Amino acid sequence: MELCLLQFLLFLFLASLLICNTIIADQTTKPYVVYMGNSISSQNNIDVDDGQIPESVHLQLLSSIIPSEESERIKLIHHYSHAFSGFSAMLTENEASALSGHDGVVSVFPDPILELHTTRSWDFLDSDLGMKPLATVPRHSSNDIIIALIDTGIWPESPSFRDDGIGKIPSRWKGVCMEGHDFKKSNCNRKLIGARYYNTQDTLNSNKTRTEGAKGSPRDSIGHGTHTASTAAGVFVNNASYYGLAKGTARGGSPSTRIAAYKTCSEEGCSGSTILKAMDDAIRDGVDIISISIGLSSLMQSDYLNDPIAIGAFHAEERGVMVVCSAGNDGPDPYTVVNTAPWIFTVSASNIDRNFRSAVVLGNGKTFQGAGINFSNLTRSTMYSLVFGEEIAAKFAPTSEARNCYPGSLDYTKVAGKIVVCVNDDPNISRRIKKLVLQDARAMGMILVDENNRDVSFDAGAFPFTEIGNLEWHQILHYINSTKNPTATILPTIEVPRYRPAPIVASFSSRGPSSLTENILKPDVMAPGVAILGAMVPKSDEPGSVPIGEKPSLFGIKSGTSMACPHVTGAAAFIKSVHGRWSPSMIKSALMTTATTYNSMKKPVTNSSNYIANPHEMGVGEINPLKALNPGLVFETNIKDYIKFLCYYGYSKKIISSVSKTNVTCPKTSQDLISNINYPSISIQTLKRNQKVKMITRTVTNVGASNATYVAKVHAPEGMVVNVYPNKLVFSKNVKRITYKVSFYAKEAHGGYNFGSLTWLDGRHYVHTVFAVKVQ
Predict the structure, then answer these.
(1) Helix %, strand %, coil % of the chain (to 5)
(2) Distance from CA of residue 6 to its chain's centroid?
(3) 562 is catalytic
(4) N or C: which end of the chain has fewer CB within 10 A?
């Protein structure tokens, strides 16, 4: 009886604890985004000033769900009122739920924290992948194109942002140059025409008190934003290098293009609500292109109307502003690509024809070429003891941790003065952490064994470092085991020019298909994102990152889809400067249909595992900006297409009307219909072998000579029958747009994804469209 009573009391205690915790959780506030659709249509019977919703409207809505005794919480973190309507604020879960049911509210979601995802690269792209001399830029190009970099801010003193020879700021520019404690209005010029910053403390750490205005500045302290800005539109800078490496003339893709910097990110990450605010501001300020090298983790993707970048990009597209985004750095696994809305230009990363090598020389005279960047002062003449991490484990440390050079896993007395071999078979410990462990233990250098990341050179600064593969490791291990006193040295990095093959899909580059809908092919294109030289913040907080006797470099070498994204931004700005009236979708189509799937050896592009790359890895191929100036035909994807997409995806008529300011009639929801959106590539999520022919429709617009005849050439995968109707397109002065159909019949095709292409040829132009079809 007593036992039963005790059990009952324990049950009551646990139940009350659960209820208490639930109540506390419901009452805890955190930042939420409240998205209310189009800035005018979503607010009924409200007087708007210059298309803007007054902040008081949103405060009134907030006050309707926050208790009066907590009136101090009735304040907005961000207010969206230019291109779309909404706000972000501190809410409890119950309050967020109450708001989501409010008339005029499209979606309410917790404010997500997003991740931050050149000398040779532009010459490589502009010279048709290094195969022919660099062509000249057309004379009739405009220098009035404006790009917005939403990132970590900017370092205005960089020579990449000088305004020598650049004309007056375009009169349509409505932006500002915000001052901060270390940033003056005079830091802006005719090149860097705008700079904004946002208070991010509320959203990045909601437990801290608000620090609005404290130490705020558009100045970049990380370097990411400065690097991306210079890659997209930096001016020509002679004799640029990273401590002598990658020496040459640095420039962006469109050196005459204006830059506006929007600082939304800090060391802690990037608040989604702040990115949304920056996009709203950028559209209002009058930019032509928005570049965002940021994204949600591939593990945390949400639907399009709960994704701040997708929301902002939709309204940018409505107003003729292109949005270019990085695909993410979670490769090589499939279904990792992010920023996949069809109205976003999604970019994967590749290498260029330049590499960096750091040799390890053994005591027996054998030399192995490893990858990596180091500025050590070691030479062949002096050798150092060579040890394997697991042989010098600290007391009680697991062997698996010591071989991976975990923090605390090594016996420091046995590390000092030696070159240590570490493996990289544990993804939890980065190369940087391993290097810091050995540096702290006063090792002479580090040899890292990693087969997977050798295509991306790690920058170890002045610390001797090289990265090798399994083949080299087996030979080095044999030497260690067969020699009484094994020794080695690591030589400083040398540059390898004319490296082949290039491009190769970077190992880290996120892969498709999109987890949200496989009926849109993502990523869209590929661009250089490995070891890219760009402008940098000339300071260093990490000991040993600056070579002895050197000043901090004005340029740095970085890798990531973050670096690939501004290459496409710069290319798009370049095309816009020549074709000022082209819409974002026309520019996007031009870059996609003229992309190349061949490398500098005139063979199919491969991935880092040396297999032929498929469209889920590289999109339609590597961009070719010069060819994109004259694409012949373009696929125009307009707002009606994107509204159809929202319909087919399954959003209600009411939501779509709020988002798009249009009355829509959606057919019965069918994800399959998404494949018919007028996109410059084709993707079909499901095609059954016993299914009848699947028909896909596309419409092309002639932007070349008035009278032109194009003939279709199909490259179909084995066992799949692909036909085009009609297979000849005849354009004239009166016929500028033609619709055609492509039929797919699985018949004897292999199961899983099948890839192929359809190319329209007129003798001058090569309009290449890629398709991906999953056969069941």
Answers:
(1) 25, 30, 45
(2) 57
(3) yes
(4) N
**Residue among 111, 126, 144, 151 flagged as catalytic:** 151
Place of tokens 């939890």: 428
pLDDT tens, residue by residue, 147-176: 999 999 999 999 999 999 899 999 999 999
Q: What does the pLDDT look like over 687-737, one tens digit per residue? A: 998 888 999 999 999 999 999 999 999 999 999 999 999 999 999 999 999
pTM: 0.91
Average of per-residue pLDDT across 268-294: 95
Q: Which residues have C-beta within 8 Å of that of residue 148, sequence separation ≥ 6? A: 260, 261, 262, 278, 282, 285, 287, 289, 290, 291
The answer to whether residue 602 scores a pLDDT higher than 80 is: yes
CATH architecture entry for 2-110: 2-Layer Sandwich (3.30)
pLDDT-based confidence at residue 46 (cuts at 50, 70, 90): very low
Task: Look up residue 655 and give its amino acid.
Answer: I
CA distance 52 to 441: 59
For domain 355-495, say whether CATH 3.40.50.300 is its number: no
Residue 124: which pLDDT band, with cuts at 50, 70 and 90?
A: low
* 224 is known as an active-site residue: yes
Q: Under CATH, to which class is 633-638+678-775 assigned?
A: mainly beta
Identify whether 513 is preceded by a cis peptide bond (ω within 30 of 0).
Answer: yes
CA 624, CA 568: separation in Å to the nearest integer?
10
d(CA 148, CA 155): 15
pLDDT of 117 above 50: yes
CA distance 171 to 163: 17
545 a catalytic residue: no
High-pLDDT (> 90) share of the chain, %: 68
Q: How far apart are alpha carbons 467 and 421 in whole angstroms? A: 10
Domain with CATH 2.60.40.2310 in the chain: 633-638+678-775
Q: What is the amino acid identity at position 439?
A: Q
Residue of 562, 577, 585, 675 marked catalytic: 562
Q: Is residue 87 over pLDDT 60?
A: yes
Tell me the CA distances in angstroms from 127 to 114, 133, 142, 146, one per residue in order: 35, 6, 22, 25
Class level of CATH domain 117-131+146-353+504-584: alpha beta
Residues near 491 by beta carbon (within 8 Å), at least 6 away in sequence: 358, 359, 360, 361, 376, 378, 379, 380
**CA angle at 78 for the pair 30 and 115, rounded to the nearest 5°:** 65
